[in-house]
Amino acid sequence: MKTDCIKFMSLAAIAAMTLCTACSDDEKEQIEPPISSTGYSSKLFLNKDNHNDINNNFEGVFSNKFVGILEGGENMSNIDNFFDNAPYRGAVEVNNDWTSGWIRVEGNGDETSKDAIEVLEGILTSSKTLKAGKTYALNGEYIVKAEGKLIIEPGVKVVAMTEDESVDYILIEQGAKILAEGTKENPIVMTSDKKEAGAWGGLHICGRAHTNVEGGKGVSEIGNAAYGGNDDTDNSGILKYVRMENTGYALDSEHEANGITFYGVGSGTKVEYVQAYNGSDDGFEFFGGSVNIKHMVVVDCTDDSFDWTEGWDGKGQFLVAYQQNAECDCLMECDNNGKNFDAEPVASPTIANVTLVGNNGSKQGIRLRAGTQVKLYNTLVTGKAKCLTTETSQTEKALVDGTSVLKYVTLATDIECNGSK
Predict the structure, then answer these.
(1) How many angstroms separate the Cα of 200 from the Cα of each of 108, 193, 250?
(2) In whole angstroms, what is the distance from residue 32 CA to residue 161 CA?
(3) pLDDT per position as a tens digit, 5-36
(4) Can you tell me the distance from the alpha carbon of 421 to that of 417, in angstroms, rounded to the nearest whole number?
(5) Which pTM was predicted?
């Protein structure tokens, strides 16, 4: 009788333990705090419908610096006819290396202003053609005013005369155009006598498309030219097979020149096959506007490779950032408006087929902050301690509610979410 009682008690205890264990598991599922309406998380990033991946070691992905893809991606041509059909992750296929033959990844050229047939300086108000294969010197500012047109033929070299104290840069004002069409075999090269980062002031283009700065109009950081407006289809010309070298001249701590700066540039402007190389500020920066970009490469620009703010909402495909320099900052720094996170129109570009390879430093790969939104597809990010970070409640809310999209994104690290801080 005693034995039966003990046996019964033991069975009851086991049953109770089993029941409690089951209850604990159920309760754990039930009491897990719901995802915040504004807070993003790794759990959301890794939702199976997003097809994202973290902590990938990228072994065997790249055959040459940044050349290589991972299979599996969105066919973006089904989303918008701007995009090519490239349903894979990354920007450059091994058997279709569109970067070969026209970009630079190391060293410097031997271009010199001493070989120039003409000096570019002052103001252009009419049409000017730089002849194919010729070298031109740039002395100080060269400003193309409204109705002016700077035409640059294949193989032209523009060399900034950096031995004096003048600030050398090219500025395309509202209503003016630059028509720079190189080829893969004969790219247009804009460089400097001094073969070092920060030697000259790069290219600045001001358009009549939107910016979300207060009042809807801004002034360029270099040249004090107006930009902004309400013509999002504005046309500032063409950039094709153009390489920018050694840019990033610093006027002061607040005003530095990027490789190319797009100020309120409209979607009527065509930009493809353009590189920024060895700069001391950003490679490409977008202050508002709706310009679309394709086949863009940034190598060793020591601030951010790609940078947007003030409501840029263009489209981009086949973008590469590659960092060898230990000083390089973010691969992509992405803001809506640093002074007003809620400013409208909100920055919301749609970007696909991206390869971002960092310098193995502690900074961010992609830094989404200051209220920006984004739709990002088919992307590889490696070589950064923080491959993707999110900041500000506005940015994270857009990710949570589906206004922003991260799909087919493969990272070497987990994401870091700081929107609630």
Answers:
(1) 15, 9, 9
(2) 64
(3) 333 333 333 333 333 333 333 333 333 334 44
(4) 9
(5) 0.90
